Structures are given as C-alpha cells and as structure tokens.
Amino acid sequence: MPPKQSDSEKRPTIRDVAARAGVSVPTVSRALIGNYPVAPATRSKVLRAVRELDYVVNAHARALAGATTKTIAFIVDDVTGPFYAHIARGVETEAASQGRLCLLCTTHGDPERELAVVELMREQHAEAVIVVGGGYDDEHYTERMTYFARALDRAGSHLVLCGRPSLGEDVPATTVHYENESGAYAMTAHLLSAGHRTIAYLGRGPGLSTTDERVAGFRRAHADYGVPLDDTLILPGEFSKAAGYDRTQELLEWRSDVTAIFAATDMVAAGVLRALRKAGVQVPQDMSVAGFDDIPLAADLTPALTTVRVPHEDLGRESVRLALSREQGAPAGRAVLGTHIVVRESVAPPRQPRD
Amino acid sequence: MPPKQSDSEKRPTIRDVAARAGVSVPTVSRALIGNYPVAPATRSKVLRAVRELDYVVNAHARALAGATTKTIAFIVDDVTGPFYAHIARGVETEAASQGRLCLLCTTHGDPERELAVVELMREQHAEAVIVVGGGYDDEHYTERMTYFARALDRAGSHLVLCGRPSLGEDVPATTVHYENESGAYAMTAHLLSAGHRTIAYLGRGPGLSTTDERVAGFRRAHADYGVPLDDTLILPGEFSKAAGYDRTQELLEWRSDVTAIFAATDMVAAGVLRALRKAGVQVPQDMSVAGFDDIPLAADLTPALTTVRVPHEDLGRESVRLALSREQGAPAGRAVLGTHIVVRESVAPPRQPRD
DNA sequence: TTCCTATTCCTAACCGGTTTCTAAATTCGT
DNA sequence: ACGAATTTAGAAACCGGTTAGGAATAGGAA
C-alpha cells in the first residue's frame, strides 16, 4: 500500500507533509516530536499525511537544528576478536536500549589510525566516543588523546576509554576498566601455588597497556611468592593463534625447564595448545597452560582452558551507561569491573616440583 | 598548542574560520573541499585559521547541504557470532578503504526489530544499507523488506542483502550470497561417501533461509545417493553451542543408529562434540561430526572439525564494493561466492557400514 | 454582552555548511 | 595601452528540519 507510485522520484520532506496535511511546517515537526501542544485533530491529520507520503525525518537536518544526535561512536582494533566482539555487543545493546545508534570504526592496531578515527568522529558530533582496548604507552599518542578528550568535551561530546587506564585526573574522559593486573596476579599465583617455578608469559605487546598491566601482575605474584623471575621468559608476540603457535615452538627448542605457559590471551593459548600437541607434550601433565579472557570456546579446547574471566559485555554496557548518564560538565566517571580466574583442566602441578 | 583556551567554550564554525582568515564562508568551504580553484595564498591563510581554531566540519551540515553522506549502514543479528564478526570486518575494512563510516545495528534475531532498524536507517541517509544473515520465510516480512528496498532506492540509498537469497528480479536490492545449498550438498555427499547412511542434521531454524538452504542441500545429496532420508533426523535448534549440546544429548538417548551428525554451524558442532565427549562417544570412531562456517577455532576443537568454509570476510567486502560501484539507477548487482569443504579429523567411515 | 485568558497555529530566524551565479581583479594578446 | 579571456572571491539561495515569539480563535467569568 505505501509505495505511492505517483509522487515518487524523491523522498518527501517535512514541507510536503505540511502541504498535504494543510498545516504549517513547524506544526508537523511538533506533532511528530510531541514536545509542544497540538490539537488532536491536527495531529491525526499530520500523522495521516506522514503515512500516506511514507515520510521519515532527515536525521542530519534534525541533528543540525540542535536536537541531540543520538549517536555513539565506537572504536575497536578489530571486530573479529572475541574480546572486541563481546564489548561491541555490550555497547550496541545498551546504546540501542537507550535509543542510540552506533558508529563503528576499526583501527587494525594502528595507533596513528586510531587517532585519525577519533578525529573523524568529531565531525560526526557523536554523544560519546568509546575507544576500546589497550592504549599505547607513547608520549605523542597520550598527548594527542588527551587533546582529543578536551576537544570532544568542548564540543559537547565525551570520550570514554574502555579497557585501558585513565589519562589522568584532569582529563575529561570517562574510564571503564577491568581488574587486569590483579587478574594476571591471581592466575600467576594459581600457577605458583600449584608448584610451578619456571613460567613463561607469552604475548607481550611493546607499550600496549593491556599486556603491560598483565605483565605487572605476573611480576608482582612472583615477588609475593619469593620466586625469582627470569625476564627472558616474558616473550613478545601479537594476540593471535599463529603467534602463540610460533612462539611456543621456539620456546620448546630453546628451554626445557619451563613447566607452565601463561598466554596473554585465550586465542594465543589456542595456538600454544596446538604447538604442544604437535610436539607431543601432554597438557597438563607435562606442561600447564593458562589463558586470559574466557572466550566462549575456551571450555571446548583440549584440555578445557583455565583462564581469567573478563566481563567484556558488561564493560561495553557500562561504558555507554556512564557516558550517557553524565551531566554536561560533570566530572568524568570511572569504573573498574572485576575479573576472576576460571579453573578448568589445563593446569596441574608440575611433574617434578622444584622445591 | 592547539587547545586555544581563549575562544573555547564552543566548537568553531566555518564562519569563525572565515572571519579569522579574512575571507568569505564559501571560500573556506572551497579551500577545504578542493573542488574549485582557490588561490594558493588564500588557501594557506584558510588552512592556518583552521589549524589555529582546531576546526572540523560538521558532518551533518555537510550531509544536509547535499554532499554525499559517506556512511554505510550495517545490520546483523549479533556481532558476537564468528559468522557475523567476520562479515562485519569485511564490511568495515572495505568501507574504511573507500573513506566511508559504518553504522552498526543488531537485531538479536528478531525479524520485527530488523525491519524497524532498516526503517531507522532511512533517516540516516546511508549510501547503502547492508542486511546480513539469513532472511525469514514469512510473507509479511518479505513484503516489507521489498517495500524498504524500494523506499531506499527512491531516496538515493541502496539495499544489499548479504548471505541470503534475492527478493526477486524487480526489487532494487543487490544480493551477495554464498554457495550455501551446494556447500551443504558437498558435505552431505562427503559423509555419504564415507559410508554413513543415518545422518542427523542439527540446527534447523524454522523459516530461516540459512538453514532452509542447507537442509535443501542435505536432501538433494541424499536423493542423489539414493539414500532414503528420515525427516525426523532433521532436528531444530538455534545456532548456539548450548543448543548443539542439548539436542545431541536428546538424540543419544532417542536413537542409537545415527553414525554422523551434520551441525548447522561450527558453534553448534562445538556443543555436539562436548555432549559426545561427556557421553563417552568417540569421534570420529563412533560418531562423525561435521560443521559449517570454518570459524578460526574449528581446527582447535578435538578432534579438529571437518567443516564447510564460507568466505565471510569476502562477503562483507563484496557487499560494500558492489553497493558503492553501482551507478544511481543501474540494475541491482548480484554475486555468489564459493564455498568448499575442509577435511580435518572429525569424520571417518562408520564402524559398521550399512551396505 | 464584554473582556480576559487559554489554546493552537503560523511567521520568522537559525543550525552550518555547499553550490550557483555574478562581479571584481588579473593575465594575456596584439 | 586597451579590450577580451581567465582566475578568483563574494552574495544569495538552499538543504530539511527546530525553536522562539506573536496573532488568531476559542472558551469562561463577570
């Protein structure tokens, strides 16, 4: 019924609706928004015209005229990773439930692109710009991000850092983080308690806050347990299955005394498990493996992966909740969500306890 | 340097830039867009003012004034699933490389919400609206989607159906599909060739094109191999690990003659494998299992999953490529990407071949 | 009946850009 | 040195809405 062949060829404007309903343009606007008294009879005339013409407002015109934008921008490394995907889901779900639309951008791990994208978002006048994932420990980067926080704030928008440390007290950016360092601490303690004394940490990214914090927890646990830590056991590598696989193969030919591997990520752990299986190393009898994230398939790996649970979806949800609840000019919010270890089957005491 | 404390409090407009540079507003616009001759000296004055004021254009104003929107809308069930996540990545990557931004919406599998969201996208004037995933076989649904295709087309936008069948020749919507039916056919043929005669298909969604097509391939293979198909072996269930787990447990107590399970999805297959492991059924010795999608962790399940590879990322990329390359008013594009089976370790001949 | 107060709607101004059209300033040929 | 061609810049109109600020019409009290 609606398609209206005759007056097609162009999307109808509010003017067309006004003409058809026999009222003025502002009346149509008010009837639709409902923030101003309009006689019932008039309103129904307007609504009928809207239906007949199949009219929808022009979001850009509305945004330009001052009504709020109803848009939340969302920047991640790569939607593909389970980590990001679940945060994305949290963000999208919460945003949608508050009647907002999501603008998505990916950076593919390039700090330069991340900055460029945040800049792009300024053009869009999003209510909030949520940057997800680890930050980079680089002065130039930090400085520019701080600058963007101020620029967005000035423009009535707001920056949210999700899953990375704060930029400082005086920067107008909300931070939604999770217990990253203590999650790594707990897992390392778990391994040390089981009797492991030579543990490799696999997947340190240089200057990426995500791994820096985890390594810090790894270190602190060693210190608390009085176990000396060999720094060469903190191996670099990106957060991928391939990296986990490769680094593990190298590790196996290089050192035979390692009894446990703490992977920076469950994905990395999957690669580790694969390399160990190929090499005929039994997990957990000959080698314990731990991950981080608790992705959906962590329990389906063989053996089921012992890992650190991160409330990804809640992180996303909380980010938009905080951003939207904040009064203009109010102090930036802050939240830290908890993590805890999930014990499954990939960790056991080492075959020959060292002490 | 840029923050400019003095004239802050408001985002600068093009008018401010013009005033500061000592030129008219249109001149600033032209200097920035570069589609009109501007004297080098003037241009640099303008650029300097832009830098000093830290000016960025207002995307809404620009969109309203007629310049193209540079936005692509993207509608999926749930970003969390590997299937959608990879398509999303393809879409985002290609969109970004063509200088477009992505608008993301999720429907959580609700056809009503999907329609509502497409409607919402009309307000946004996106260049293209890409709907991802299976369509619903429901007359009301099909009719409204057809109507939206027309409405979007009329408004200068364009609908792309990604991963679902076309709406018909005369509907202005581009279709980017994959060999779904023949992928299922190939996998079923693979199972039949191995000697299986009683195969369960697990994860049929009622009226969802994704599964309908797969079931069709499942049927056709049985017919070609002259193997009678017991319809009660086509089990319903959503695309989740939990569903795979539950249905498999039920199946095991109900029928003992099934020698292979074809899961609608790798995620479902993960649940199937888990249920079988719990029940002490050896895979592939006692039961063969096949999946569909070839998600990243498919090779890391135990045993490594034999599955059908779907080029998710390419689907996403091709969707935006087709949408953007299309001339206004040109006939809607169409593409079908190939699938192929990936043989790993979860399928073997049945213990007691039946014929 | 008259005056006053609510209602309800319309006219006008504005949001921040882009584009067409016109005028001024320059360059050029001769 | 003069008129024509060519750049370059500005004025005005427009994109599609929203939000004050009046004017008209209605209803109620005196």
Automatic annotation (TrEMBL), chains A, B:
Q: Looking at the keywords, is S-adenosyl-L-methionine present? A: no
Q: Which domain of life is it from?
A: Bacteria
> SMART domains from the xrefs?
HTH_LACI (SM00354)
Keyword field: DNA-binding, Transcription, Transcription regulation
Q: What one GO molecular function would you report for this record? A: DNA-binding transcription factor activity
Any idea where the HTH lacI-type domain is?
Answer: 12-66
- Name one matching Pfam family: Peripla_BP_3
Is Iron-sulfur included in the keywords of this UniProt record? no
| Gene3D superfamilies registered for this protein in UniProt | 3.40.50.2300, lambda repressor-like DNA-binding domains
Q: Give the protein name, as stated in the record.
A: LacI family transcriptional regulator
Q: State the species of origin.
A: Glycomyces buryatensis
